[in-house]
Amino acid sequence: MGTRYSARFHAPAGANLRLIVAELASGVTAVDNQMSNWKADSDLSRLNRTAPDNWVSISANLAALLVRAIEIGRETGNAFNIGVGDLVDAWGFGPSGSQRPPDVPAGPRPCPPVDELLEIDVVGSRARKHGPVALDLCGIAKGFGVDELARVLDRHGIDSWLVGIDGEVRSRGGKPDGSAWAIALEAPEDERRAAMGVVELRDAAIATSGDYRHWIKVDGKRVSHTMDPRTSHPLQGTLASVTVISPVCADADAYATALMVLGEEAGHEHARRLGLDAFFVARAGDGLRATGTGFFGGA
Predict the structure, then answer these.
(1) Which of 114, 144, 152, 172 is nearest to 1 (CA)?
(2) For 45-73, how does the pLDDT look when each residue is reduced to its tens digit (9 = 90+)?
(3) pLDDT per residue as tens digits for the range 201-252
(4) Where would a tag sit more exposed on the chain, N or C end, judged by fewer CB atoms within 10 A?
């Protein structure tokens, strides 16, 4: 996934640490091999290359995640759409390494919902497209990888752990001294990494989507790596980051992306409607404005 994973855990006496570490590595490697756009032989890349109306064998994990991605797309009014692979690549954020922004019309061109273009056979672990679409799971696969790390530690009966891939994190229990795991909320700053607050996390996952790590400048304007499926253009609003807490990390990852796309006002409304714990940081002049829902202090 182009980054590193981490796992902190307190194992009981006699635990086979070598086996646990090997299974953690195997778990995230499997997710990468199944869901990466950057690996030509991944399940996802094979599906993207295959012509419409042809079934492609995929892993059970990928089949399940595609179904969940489509569900979240429906829930968010297409603000989360995994069918933006060509857009991501065309704007220079994908595997082709393109350095020139595409020639695109100024007006909005909504991306069709993925459920109109993709059929998934979960029982048979296969999928097929019903039209041209390039799938991109960067808004949910990293969170799923974190959940895989969690499943490894749960299988070994470990009840005190913190696992993460880049900024997506999930915890079980607390530390042996009884304190919660402390997670820093990163300030949306380009040139340095700084914390703007700390969240105590127990038995939950947290993920952040933002415009301050991966972006380019086009005609002097900042262009985010996150695509707006409702317009087929990159995000260019005032919202700098959204953090979501959820029981599982794949959901937190996807909802954080969706709320970024929806924007501050509509994102707040949607988070309240779904009962999401969400933290919004928007640019306001030379400063920042932070607001939240649920756990983060909102109604």
Answers:
(1) 144
(2) 999 999 999 999 999 999 999 999 999 99
(3) 999 999 999 876 666 666 666 677 788 898 888 887 788 899 999 999 999 9
(4) C
Cβ atoms of residues 241 and 187 within 8 Å: no
- Flag whether 42 is in a domain: no
As to burial, measured by CB atoms within 10 angstroms (0-12 exposed, 13-18 middle, 19+ buried), residue 51 is exposed
The burial class, CB within 10 Å (0-12 / 13-18 / 19+), for 295 is: middle
Half-sphere exposure (CA, 13 Å, Cβ side) for 1?
A: 28
The reply to whether 232 falls in a domain is: yes
Distance (Å, whole) CA 37 – CA 2: 11
> Kind and range of the H or E element at 243?
strand 239-246
- Could you give the residue ranges of the DSSP H alpha helices within the chain? 17-35, 43-49, 60-75, 85-90, 141-155, 249-262, 264-274
pTM: 0.92
Number of domains in the chain: 1
Cα 197 from Cα 122, distance rounded (Å): 41
| Rounded Cα distance, 41 and 32, in Å | 11
The pair of structure tokens assigned to 81 is 């759409």
Domain assignment present for residue 191? The answer is yes
Whole-angstrom distance, CA of residue 277 vs CA of residue 190: 25
CATH code: domain of residue 279: 3.10.520.10
Quickly list DSSP for 139-199. TTHHHHHHHHHHHHHHHTT--SEEEEETTEEEEES--TTSPPEEEEEEP--SS---EEEEE
3-class SS of residue 52? coil
The full DSSP string for 104-128 is --SS--PPPPGGGTEEEETTTTEEE
Contact of 277 with 294, CB cutoff 8 Å: yes
Q: Does a structural domain hold residue 64?
A: no
Q: Which residue segment(s) compose the domain that 234 sits in?
A: 171-296
